[in-house]
Design brief:
The complex is a heterodimer of chains A (117) and B (115).
Chain A lengths: L2 E3 L4 E5 L4 E3 L2 E3 L4 E8 L5 E7 L5 E3 L5 E5 L4 E6 L8 E9 L10 E2 L3 E6 L1
Parallel strand pairs in A: 2-12
Antiparallel strand pairs in A: 1-4, 3-9, 5-6, 5-10, 7-8, 8-9, 10-11, 10-12
Chain B lengths: L4 E3 L2 E4 L5 E6 L6 E8 L3 E9 L2 E5 L6 E5 L5 E5 L8 E8 L9 E3 L3 E5 L1
Classes of the chains: A mainly beta (117), B mainly beta (115).
């Protein structure tokens, strides 16, 4: 079975500082990894994904994520935080081959990112 | 705007009742996914349809069912509703095909409240 852990319920960062939102995953094979953001009363918006190749993935709104296979992590980063980045962030995983298992995305519990002015 | 539409936005009903949630995927997307978001369970995958056929099931209760129609819109039917079914229900669609690397685009959700 696949799973995702987001160890922090909330991350507080001052505006202009770098931010990191942590994510670790567990799959039996190789993963496809995704980050989504959810603003209040809105659906999830896709930020970026890791498929294969370069371990550093760049996405929307200046976000990037680093895939680390040995640590089974896919942390979301941004060099300089904006107040408008405040939202709920979800990491998700999908195994590369279904092998008869669940086919949907498996999400973490989410991390509230709060950027303080 | 993701291009995925869901109706209604809000639904309030009583225990024991049956409701239908509707989703229209992005133009050209053949796959539709349904998810449930609740405070205690988080975001959970319920079921996937691809071009009218059921493709995969997740944590979907037997009281729940779904279908995808020839025009590719999908409906999620929830019956014998319980208080614990109160949640935000999301529909998502992905680009043509069922490539497991394809990102999913989410609708705004339907908030179901069971009283």
């Amino acid at each position: 079975a696949q799973s995702v852990a987001q160890p922090e319920d909330q991350v507080n960062v001052a505006e202009g500082n770098p931010l990191t939102v942590k994510c670790t995953y567990s799959v039996s094979g190789n993963p496809y990894l995704f980050w989504y953001v959810q603003y209040p009363n809105r659906g999830l918006q896709f930020l970026l994904k890791y498929i294969t190749g370069d371990n550093l993935v760049k996405g929307s709104y200046g976000f990037e994520a680093e895939f680390n296979k040995s640590q089974t992590s896919f942390h979301l980063k941004k060099p300089s935080a904006l107040v408008s980045d405040s939202a709920l962030y979800f990491c998700a995983v999908r195994e590369r081959y279904s092998g008869g298992g669940a086919d949907g995305l498996t999400f973490g519990k989410g991390t509230h990112l709060i950027i303080q002015p | 705007d993701s291009g995925v539409t869901q109706t209604p936005k809000h639904l309030i009903t009583a225990t024991g009742q049956r409701v239908t949630l509707r989703c229209s995927p992005r133009s050209g997307d053949l796959s539709v996914y349904w998810y449930q978001q609740s405070l205690d369970q988080g975001l959970q995958f319920l079921i996937q349809y691809y071009n009218g056929e059921e493709r995969a099931k997740g944590n979907i209760l037997e009281r729940f069912s779904a279908q995808q129609f020839p025009d590719l819109h999908s409906e999620l039917n929830l019956s014998s509703l319980e208080l614990g079914d109160s949640a935000l229900y999301f529909c998502a669609s992905s680009v043509r095909g069922t490539g497991r690397y394809n990102e999913q685009f989410f609708g705004p959700g339907t908030r179901l409240t069971v009283l």
